[in-house]
Amino acid sequence: MSIDRNESRRQFLRRTTVGTAAAAAFPYLIPRHVLGAPGRPGANDRIQVGVIGVGNRANLLIDQLPQPGQVAALADCWLARCEQAAAKRQAKWDLYQDYRRILDRKDIDAVIVATPDHGRVLAAIHACQAGKDVYAEKPLTLYPAEGRALVNAARKYKRVFQVGSQQRSMQMNQIACRLVRTGGLGKITLVQGVNYPSSNTVTELPEEAVPDKLDWDVWLGQAAQRRYNKKLHTSWMSWWDYSGGEMTNWGAHGLDQVQWALGMDDSGPVELWPMEGGPAGAMAFRYENGVEVHLDLPQNDLQGGARFIGEKGQIDIWRNNFKIDAPGVTLDLPPKQEIDKWHDNVALWQAEYHMGFWLEAIPGRKTPNADVEIGHRSVTVCHLANITRRLNRRLRWDPKKEEFPGDREANLLANRERRKGWELPKV
After folding, report:
1. Which end of the chain has fewer beta carbons closer than 10 Å to its terminal beta carbon, N or C?
2. Are strands 313-318 and 321-325 parallel, antiparallel or unpaired?
3. Which residues sit opposite 272 in a β-bridge?
4. What is 297-344 written as a DSSP string?
5. Separation of alpha carbons 313 and 308, rounded Å
6. What is the pLDDT of residues 132-171, one digit of tens each?
7. What's the pLDDT tens digit per position in 414-426?
8. Chain centroid to CA 19: how far?
9. Burial classification of residue 348, based on how many CB atoms lie within 10 Å of its CB (0-12 exposed, 13-18 middle, 19 or more buried)
10. How far apart are CA 301 and CA 107, in angstroms?
11. Which pTM value belongs to this model?
């Protein structure tokens, strides 16, 4: 059974809160009076939202944006996408090809940044500088150094910054990760994750006509100048210059669960290496406390999750679900409707409730449950895995300094050169 959309979200959470696990999961509930009456937020309570990047994911977020969020404007370097999104919903939104027009508006409080991976950080930093709160899709960054620059900007400008790692808002994931983190399985002896594929080096493709209303130079952004090709434009997740492939796409969810369950939200591994004798591309890493993570499971196994093996048994965690095999260890499940709501409509991609935590954090300037530091640290692990594969050798990583000690070749991949004119602002 799904939530009645006319019911107050806070009212629903109060009814379904269970035990200490739920109390830990929802630390930033805001009093009812802050957001107005259920289903009818007052005019002063509405949060005006601009959307930067209007592709497939952004369209889902537009449709799922809960109250008090209210879309006011769209921006995309391919203006036709804005026009199509507005026409589909018969909406009278303001449409821009330059996202800075949204950031210049004083009536817009917050932005959703859903550009391709290589364009996300610069737009998000500009939003922070403009005083906008940010919901940025994952994977948050293209390479590790970008992430630290983004965190610095969010902190300097005191922004409420939520990353689209929606499994952080799913109670089934909260309960399972908390069990691991609090020692419910005893000492963790091994974690197994999925062997997600990386992206490929861009190959030369024939030049094709640029689609109408697309600013191709802006789409390329920080990446090298290239002639337009539809495959390059629409399959960008396959190419190293624009994305880390499935390792940063699904990996941003799966390795986020690993970081969360192991209590490493503000840290990362200290050593990484290619695995010998395993599937092609399999690699492993180790945290300072000795816990090893092996990325060797097939792609259709625990996608977006991982297997945690401890002294008392093991638990498999994936999206909105877990399976535990640990004699004597019991968990209190949330109410059925709290589980089922994540299977409502577009179950796999559901983000409504996760965006709700962001919107609820804004009035009181609270830290959301998938804060920018968390998003940066989790996707950094994905980047490190990709770098390990590309160099095909053992690497050391310093999670405090966020660098490969004494390894110039690896550090060049962790802090890429950006095209002139697309440098990150100094914060």
Report:
1. N
2. antiparallel
3. 285, 395
4. E-TTSSTT-EEEEETTEEEEEETTEEEEE-TT---PPPPHHHHHGGGS
5. 9
6. 999 999 999 999 999 999 999 999 999 999 999 999 999 9
7. 999 999 999 999 8
8. 28
9. exposed
10. 46
11. 0.90
